[in-house]
Each structure stands twice: as structure tokens, then as C-alpha cells.
Amino acid sequence: MAEPWVPVDEYLCDLLLEPDPILDAVLEASREGGLPPIAVAPNQGKLLNLLVRFLGATSVLEIGTLGGYSTIWMARALPEGGRLITLEALEKHATVAQANLERAGVAGSVEIRLAPALDSLRQLVDDGAGPFDFVFIDADKENTHRYFELCLQLSHVGTAIFVDNLVRNGGIVDAESTDAQVVGMREFMSYVADEKRVDVTAVQTVGSKGYDGFALAYVTGTG
To answer: Which residue, of 22, 61, 98, 205, has the greatest Cβ tally within 10 A?
Structure first.
């Protein structure tokens, strides 16, 4: 029997989200392309869309493109002339994502940068590519605190930074864990708890993607 939060997620999505054949096709193309089924749930995609709209964001940075599903949700929230840069380390993923962006009609406002994310972030800093209004971090968990630190250099006061997959099925509380992803997220939490340039909360979640959670940071200072 499915956990009770799975049908609840299905109920919420069926009730609140309009059918979207394009996004369905994006997920199918990602499956056919051999990408892991780890894209955000539809209601979380809508949450990202709403956050971009709430902020009135015109520039978005995403770390971890996968097949472009979350990218599309955020790109759709941008005003005319808005931009989104998404960072992907694997060429296979970037190829599928580019086709999906074109399928969704948002490729003109999105740039995929293919390289390890730390390298891409450092290049963005060197290029003076910021500041970004909204940042979504959803890549390898081992480097999350390094990603976050570099993202602060690409932010302004008022930037929102959303860090996904924090709770790791409850593993976040296990100080003895040897799971590299849990260790990485614990390092991130220790780092961000002491970071004076942000105001942060963290929320645990359940849903069709299981038991996890996210952190949301508001940048209060830069430099």
C-alpha cells in the first residue's frame, strides 16, 4: 500500500494544476533518454514558479538541470526579457534538457552551461554574471555548501536561495552517517547556520517523492 502522502499529492496536483501535455512530454523524454526519475514533483515545480513570480525575478540561476523539468517551471515565470542560467555537469542530461526546453518554447530565455557546477559558478563570478534574483540548488549534495557560498557572490540583498533534498529521508539528523549525500547536507546546514549574510529556514516534506525537505534563504548582505 502506498504511503498516505502519495495519494494526497496526487489529489492536490489533480485539483490545483492544469493538465500540461508539454510537461508530461518533458518527463517522458527524460525517461526515454535514460535520465534518473528525480525531477521535482509537479506541485514543487509550481512552488518554484510561484516563488519566481512572488519575487518579480528577472534573473534565475539553477544548479542541476537534469532534463529541464524544473527549469521550465521557473522559465515560464520570467517576464519578457528575463533570463535563466542552468548548470549541468553531464552532457547526456544537457542534451535531453535542451530538446525539452525547445519543446516547451522557453529555450530563448534559458542558457545551459555544461561543466562541473563549481567550475561554472566560479566562471560566473569571474564574468560578473550576477546578481540573480532567485537561485535553485538541486545538484550533488556533497558540494552544496560550496555551491551556496559561491551563489552568495552572485546574489544581491533580497535574493532567495532554495536548496532542495535537505532531509534525506531523515538522515540529516544522523551525525554518524557515512552516506556522502547526508554528510554533504549536514555540512551545508552547519555552514549556513553560521552564515551571517542570510536569514534561513528549513522545512521537512512528504509527498510523491518520499520524505525529504528544503532550505530557503533570504540574502541580507553580500560581499
So the answer is: 61
H/E stretch holding 61 reads strand 59-63
Q: Where are the alpha helices (DSSP H) in 105-223?
A: 117-127, 144-152, 180-194
Dihedral Cα 141, 143, 146, 152, nearest 10 deg: -40
Using the structure block, give the residue that is written with the C-alpha cell 533570504.
218
- The mean per-residue pLDDT over the stretch 142-148 comes to 97
Q: Residue 47 above 60 pLDDT?
A: yes
User: Which residues fall within 8 angstroms of residue 21, CB to CB, at 6 or more apart?
Assistant: none
- Domain membership of residue 64 as a residue range: 5-219
Grid cell at residue 84: 535563466
Q: How many domains does the chain have?
A: 1
Q: What is the pLDDT of residue 4?
A: 85
CATH of the domain at 134: 3.40.50.150
132-137 β-sheet, strand order: 110-114, 83-88, 59-63, 132-137, 155-164, 210-219, 198-207
Q: Give tens-digit pLDDT for 94-119.
A: 999 999 999 999 999 999 999 999 99
pTM of the model as a whole: 0.96
